[in-house]
């Protein structure tokens, strides 16, 4: 469901107040091939962050998925599976919530789809998320 070719490891992270699971996701639906992501999901099954770790998208168009080029990727922060209707988990060109880039709809469409699938996975799979109790 996460697009991985083999079993892989995610990470459980926490501090005194909250916890999250960060796991890799791969979508093969990018314009020029695979887009590799790290997606963090917190205790309330909301996105704590999404970052692109590798891609081959077109410079100046599809590479706006990178945080250093654009803040577009931060638009997922705080969203949960039920934050939008299922049809909202698409790009605006398809009637959804997320903007696409001029001349590059395939790339954001692939990322939105991958994030949505990750949230669905988290809803169906027990994730090892826990916050630590403060110590006295």
| Number of helical elements | 1
* Average pLDDT reading: 86
User: Largest beta sheet: what is the strand line-up?
Assistant: 1-2-3-4
- Any idea what the shape is? globular
The major beta sheet can be summarized as:
4 strands, antiparallel
Low-confidence stretches: 131-136
The residue fraction in helices comes out at 10-25%
Question: Secondary-structure element order, as H and E?
Answer: EEEEH
The radius of gyration is: 15 Å
What proportion of the residues form beta strands (DSSP E)?
25-35%
Structural class, from helix and strand content? alpha+beta
Provide a descriptive summary of the structure in words:
Helix content is 14%, strand content 25%. The chain is α+β, with helices and mostly antiparallel strands. The protein has one domain (11-124). It has a 4-stranded antiparallel beta sheet. A hairpin with a 4-residue loop joins strand 1 (11-14) and strand 2 (19-30). The longest helix has 19 residues, at 106-124. Residues 131-136 have low confidence and may be disordered.
Q: In brief, what are we looking at here?
A:
This protein has 136 residues and is α+β, with helices and mostly antiparallel strands. 14% of the residues lie in helices and 25% in strands.
Supply database-style keywords.
disordered C terminus, 1 helix, single chain, alpha+beta, 14% helix, 136 residues, 4 strands
């Amino acid at each position: 469901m996460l697009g991985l070719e083999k079993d892989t490891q995610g990470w459980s992270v926490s501090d005194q107040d909250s916890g999250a699971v960060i796991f890799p996701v791969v979508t093969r639906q990018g314009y020029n091939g695979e887009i590799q992501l790290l997606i963090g999901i917190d205790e309330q099954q909301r996105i704590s962050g999404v970052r692109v770790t590798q891609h081959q998208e077109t410079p100046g168009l599809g590479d706006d998925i990178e945080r250093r080029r654009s803040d577009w990727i931060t638009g997922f922060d705080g969203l949960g599976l039920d934050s939008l209707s299922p049809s909202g988990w698409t790009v605006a060109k398809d009637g959804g919530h997320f903007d696409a880039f001029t001349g590059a709809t395939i790339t954001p469409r692939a990322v939105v789809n991958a994030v949505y699938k990750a949230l669905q996975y988290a809803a169906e799979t027990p994730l090892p998320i826990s916050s630590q109790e403060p110590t006295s």
